[in-house]
Request: fold
Amino acid sequence: MGTNFATARSASSGSAASAKALVKLLAGFGMKPPPVYDPFLSKADAIRHGVNLVPIDWLLGEADFVSIHCPLTEQTQNLIGERELA
Reply:
């Protein structure tokens, strides 16, 4: 019973400092760095930071855990809605 964090698939939305801290924390459980959905992060920056960018539909469909790290703005309001949770 419970979740084996070492084999669970996590994912993150946003790549802010809190998301980076989460990656470090998850590494302590033996988890690999999670794929990231971030519409504001360029592919070049993702490569530089060792981040695997994925579409939000992939992130929500494949991850066992999703951690969201972004400010509430007009662009991020309703980022996760009824359609995404269905």
Notes: Strands lie at 10-13, 36-37, 65-68. The two ends are 25 Å apart (CA to CA). The chain has one domain: 10-85. Residues 17-27 form the longest helix (11 residues).
